[in-house]
Q: What sequence folds into this?
């Protein structure tokens, strides 16, 4: 039974005949709208994370107009609401510090204004999870318009991938294998168009996961940003959100445990970014689903990596789109997904996959010939990570998946950076590089420092991977034997705080173990002498963040944003 106009949220602002509604209507007319433009129509808030400082969303000004076109076509009333942009390349110390702030902005933006439905325009790393978390908490109909990947990078006829090739050629430059002039040419060729990183970074991972959970039109996340299919998808999303309002198709009807599992399964099959684990936990918990790290490990045992995309594979997101995109990947996954889950289309996930198939079996592999036989995630536990740590085995050199070596410990990124290229640094290929105080509170915000650089003297001798361990995150475009998200973090007294240079660290990915081979009595002695560091921030948002953020294993959300407690609709008087 579709909603009636007087059941719209916005009716309280615009549809009644009182002094306040007169004010609201007259102010819309102040902007040149006729009463017939909005009377009795769903008001759609377009949360647009466009900004001059976000290259991945440079096309969103135009796309917002295309979304509006669809909203008008379907009989809705669009209102664009600029939302905080989280620009991965520029925002420091890390966009992750601000993910929850954007989520709050969306939730409160919906709640405090006459919004009946929301279009969520995002893509660059944390924007997608943030927008969706806010919409889940607000629980008004919401559709996600993904920014789409940028085109392949190019250098002298060769293909360049976001992030991955930056790290790769930086090491080649440090090793003296390319010149400064080469490096500058690469700088001008690696990001050729607007759109998100075209490797399997956090953005490509999360836009796919959000689609798999049911929040985008089928196939939307794979369309390259400059492709003409992209504006058509934006317009279709605008049309669809209006229908969703009449159908009252709210996030709580879409996101149940099976839809979350679909998101995790796609995360694994894509060889997705480790950052995705934190975001999926946070998204699920906003919906009241008690997701833990263990579910990722379980799903990882069942779901192989099928997307042959860098850094786990060979191709880029543009190739992935031409091979059939996410619909083809999900079709190839077959029974690993629950096709009965409802999506924003009002139809099931399975119905949205009808006719989908891979057009390039080297890019989107069949189950019979995966890129990697297990999923992209290993969750490790042990005396160094009682609450867990994660690793992406598919992006590491296999010899390092079972390794023991002496620790070389850095207390901060600055300390590491100051000495890492020093020829006198006492380090061998067997060492385990440890970075601590880079977690949710220590970073703060868990900066993407987890892919510690290989020490310069080892790079010059040809070494390209070694075991690294931290309470930080790493970019999804990064690679290597990096154990990340160690929880609890060192800054709050996790065991990582007790490691000393020369202690032996043992990693056994097959056994899912991460251990510090130091006697319990010695660790207890060290703990007794441990002094908590002072808080990073004395005031402001940073202080609030530190007081309320959870550890990586719990999704790094704020405790006061957990679902359950009552949040009233605003009084209109
Ligand atoms: Fe924006 Fe990678 S920097 S998606």
A:
């Amino acid at each position: 039974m579709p909603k009636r106009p007087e059941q719209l949220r916005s009716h309280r602002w615009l549809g009644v005949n009182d002094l306040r509604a007169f004010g609201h209507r007259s102010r819309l007319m102040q902007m040149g709208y006729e009463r017939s433009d909005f009377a009795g129509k769903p008001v759609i808030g377009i949360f647009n994370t466009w900004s001059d400082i976000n290259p991945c969303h440079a096309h969103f000004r135009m796309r917002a107009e295309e979304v509006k076109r669809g909203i008008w076509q379907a009989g809705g009333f669009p209102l664009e609401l600029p939302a905080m942009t989280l620009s991965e390349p520029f925002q420091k110390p890390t966009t992750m510090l601000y993910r929850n702030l954007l989520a709050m902005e969306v939730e409160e933006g919906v709640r405090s204004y006459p919004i009946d439905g929301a279009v969520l325009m995002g893509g660059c790393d944390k924007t997608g999870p943030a927008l969706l978390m806010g919409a889940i908490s607000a629980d008004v109909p919401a559709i996600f318009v993904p920014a789409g990947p940028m085109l392949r990078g190019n250098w002298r006829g060769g293909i360049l991938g976001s992030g991955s090739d930056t790290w790769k050629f930086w090491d080649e430059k440090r090793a003296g294998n390319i010149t400064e002039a080469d490096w500058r040419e690469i700088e001008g060729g690696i990001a050729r168009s607007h759109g998100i990183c075209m490797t399997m970074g956090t953005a490509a991972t999360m836009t796919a996961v959000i689609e798999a959970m049911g929040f985008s039109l089928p196939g939307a996340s794979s369309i390259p940003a400059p492709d003409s299919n992209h504006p058509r998808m934006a317009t279709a999303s605008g049309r669809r959100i209006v229908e969703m309002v009449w159908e009252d198709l709210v996030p709580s009807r879409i996101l149940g445990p099976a839809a979350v599992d679909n998101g995790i399964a796609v995360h694994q099959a894509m060889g997705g970014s480790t950052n995705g684990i934190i975001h999926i936990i946070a998204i699920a918990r906003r919906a009241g689903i008690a997701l833990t790290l263990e579910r990722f490990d379980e799903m990882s045992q069942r779901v192989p990596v099928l997307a042959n995309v860098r850094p786990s594979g060979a191709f880029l997101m543009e190739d992935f789109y031409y091979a059939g995109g996410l619909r083809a990947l999900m079709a190839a996954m077959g029974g690993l997904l629950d096709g009965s889950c409802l999506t924003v289309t009002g139809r099931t996930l399975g119905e949205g996959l009808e006719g989908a198939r891979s057009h390039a079996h080297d890019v989107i592999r069949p189950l019979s010939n995966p890129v990697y036989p297990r999923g992209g995630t290993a969750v490790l536990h042990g005396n160094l990570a009682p609450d867990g740590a994660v690793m992406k085995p598919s992006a590491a050199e296999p010899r390092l998946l079972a390794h023991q070596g002496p620790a070389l410990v850095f207390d901060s990124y600055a300390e590491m950076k100051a000495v890492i290229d020093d020829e006198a640094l006492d380090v061998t290929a067997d060492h385990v590089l440890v970075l601590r105080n880079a977690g949710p509170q220590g970073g703060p915000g868990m900066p993407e420092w987890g892919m510690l650089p290989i020490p310069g003297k080892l790079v010059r001798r040809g070494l390209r991977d070694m075991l690294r361990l931290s309470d930080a995150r790493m970019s999804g475009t990064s690679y290597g034997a990096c154990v990340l998200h160690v929880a609890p973090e060192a800054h709050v007294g996790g065991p990582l705080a007790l490691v000393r240079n020369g202690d032996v660290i043992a990693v056994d990915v097959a056994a899912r173990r991460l251990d510090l081979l130091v006697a319990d009595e010695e660790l207890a002695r060290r703990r007794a002498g441990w002094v908590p560091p002072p808080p990073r921030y004395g005031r402001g948002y940073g202080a609030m963040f530190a007081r309320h953020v959870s550890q990586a294993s719990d999704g790094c959300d704020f405790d006061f944003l957990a679902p359950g407690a009552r949040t009233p609709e605003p009084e209109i008087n």
